[in-house]
UniProtKB/TrEMBL annotation:
Keywords recorded for this protein, A-Z: Signal
UniProt superkingdom: Bacteria
Signal sequence, start to end: 1-28
Keyword Signal: yes
Name of the protein described by the UniProt record: CARDB domain-containing protein
Organism of origin: Agromyces aurantiacus
């Protein structure tokens, strides 16, 4: 073993002070010159510009041990210090966008400080400010600060804003993506009308896309509905759907069904809206104008009325492709025949009237009044003629509007409501189709 002297020289020593002489420190001879500390190159340190590690810094103001507010939150291009060895005074619970826990770290409380007087001591202040520094993660969306001893949440920090701000300012960062998410279509389909008190199924289809440039990305689509008074919609609360791996050039269709109940007569609108947003804060969607789209669907709420096919007959025979079939539409008061609304049959707009099965009428298929006009008359009702004017109509049933298997036939149309508008009505009666 060879010996190499290492000399340590101390200057300015007073008389009687300790003097160090040259000391020879043995070391094992190196077989590879690169392993020789005397000749090995200096280590290369990664600077902040090229180090991909980042941290999230949250500065908080504490009014008390259990009350705190966020003063500031931002992403720092510096590696977070280790929390290994920190005492479990506070827990920093790091969460993703779905509330899943990414990690839980110990941390000092900003209220625990060292003071210096005659001696150094630890004190717990009533209020104060401090920073929490945690490692950056693309999945990071929030941080909860919990007082461990009290087992009480002190602060809930939404980190999506600061992380998105960082990615907007640093689009070339390897953790940041740019994707123009868009809702490109929303359409609704349902029956032509619904009777007050009944429900109708309305189907809504939405198309979402990733217009690039980066992808695939995970997104969240939120669908909501807003209805006019006179309609009740289920579900009424917004629904959120995960759209995983939305790739550029690969549109995704989202379908939803709603039950709509008419609670008041008339035409009422229901608006279906679809919005899309990135699931991760690190995905920047700079084009906000196409992030949402909506479709308005009109629901025609008809009042129920009383009709009498073949007045005076109880069997109500109907011959398909035969002659004209007489059908009486009765004028009634509210509550008569169990009907909720008063109805004046002489106000029917005859050009709107259609006859057929309810299924056919809901699809827009029916036959019109044969003469193009109504005939005011006091129809002999199932009970008796009541002395008021009803409407006698005539139809020539066809197989496209009524089938031999149908046991019921209906009249659909509109009547003048007295204010310049019209309201839909529907009445049905049993038939014997031949």
């Amino acid at each position: 073993m060879t010996m190499r002297p290492i000399t340590i020289t101390l200057t300015g020593l007073a008389a009687g002070s300790l003097v160090l002489a040259a000391v020879a420190i043995p070391y094992a001879a190196q077989s590879d010159p690169a392993d020789d500390p005397a000749t090995a190159p200096l280590p290369t340190f990664v600077d902040g510009a090229s180090d991909p590690a980042k941290s999230v810094v949250v500065r908080a103001d504490f009014a008390s041990r259990t009350e705190a507010t966020v003063a500031d939150a931002a992403v720092s291009i510096e590696r977070a210090h280790s929390h290994v060895g920190d005492p479990p005074i506070m827990h920093l619970v790091l969460e993703d966008g779905d509330g899943g826990v990414i990690d839980t770290l110990n941390a000092w409380s900003p209220l625990w400080v060292f003071t210096f007087g005659d001696t150094e001591r630890l004190e717990v202040q009533e209020s104060g400010s401090g920073s929490f520094i945690v490692p950056f993660s693309p999945e990071l969306a929030g941080m909860r600060v919990v007082d461990v001893a009290l087992d009480e949440e002190v602060l809930d920090v939404d980190l999506t804003g600061p992380i998105r701000d960082f990615c907007v300012a640093n689009p070339d960062d390897p953790d940041c993506l740019e994707a123009d998410l868009a809702v490109t279509a929303v359409s609704a389909s349902g029956p032509l009308f619904t009777v007050v008190g009944d429900t109708a199924a309305v189907s809504v289809s939405s198309t979402v896309e990733n217009l690039g440039p980066d992808g695939p990305v995970d997104a969240e689509a939120t669908r909501s509905v807003t209805a006019d008074p006179g309609l009740s919609v289920v579900p009424s609360d917004p629904t959120v759907t995960d759209v995983a791996g939305l790739a550029v050039g690969s549109p995704r269709d989202l379908d939803a069904d709603y039950e709509i109940e008419c609670t008041e007569p008339g035409t009422h609108d229901v608006t279906f809206r679809t919005e899309i947003a990135p699931e991760l804060a690190t995905v920047v969607d700079a084009e906000a104008a196409n992030d949402a789209l909506e479709e308005t669907f009109s629901v025609d709420c008809a009042i129920p009325v009383k009709i009498d096919v073949q007045p005076g007959s109880t069997r109500n025979p109907v011959r398909l492709n035969g002659g004209d079939l007489p059908v009486g539409v009765l004028t009634t008061g509210a509550g008569e025949y169990g009907l909720p609304y008063a109805f004046d049959a002489t106000k029917i707009v005859v050009s709107t009237v259609q006859f057929g099965s309810e299924t056919a009428l809901l699809s827009g298929i029916g036959v019109g009044e044969s003469h193009g006009r109504l005939h005011p008359t006091d129809v002999v009702e199932p009970k008796k003629g009541d002395g008021d004017l009803d409407a006698m109509l005539h139809f020539a049933p066809r197989r496209d509007s009524l089938l031999p298997t149908d046991a019921e036939a209906c009249v659909f149309g509109r009547f003048a409501d007295g204010s310049g508008g019209t309201v839909a009505f529907l009445g049905c009666d049993v038939v014997d189709v031949r």
